[in-house]
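thoughts on my protein:
***
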Amino acid sequence: MTVNELGREDYPLFSKHPELIKSPTGKSLDEINLENVLNDKIKPEDLRITKETLKNQGEIAKNAGRPAIQSNLERAAELTVIPDERLLAMYGSLRPYRSTLQELLDMADELENQYGATITADFVREGAAFYKERKKLKGDN
């Protein structure tokens, strides 16, 4: 089955297509169980969602007529490659009055060029323009 064939009937992936779900370290759903947790065979990184799983869920949403959900899942898929600490710092920088226009534009460039997160980069650029218009940038308050 290719991703483009996933539709409404394939939801939820967990029960309908567990073979399509892997941890970032390559573990299958069958391997993620209490016994392996207790035997220290499961690490925190094994419990994270992958870019592929989010994209598969997005394909189901698209084929079910839910393009907004697909868009959100595509954006989430982009964020899986960004280290947690950096992602949290970016989140804090996006709050009103926390960043200058240039800092937001630099963040968008980082998202696009370093992480390949083009959808999210465009989202940040859009937010930066909005903050400029509404006087929500650092120093505007």
User: Anything to note?
Assistant: Residues 83-140 form a domain with the Hypothetical Protein Yqey; Chain: A; domain1 fold (CATH 1.10.1510.20). The longest helix spans residues 118-134.
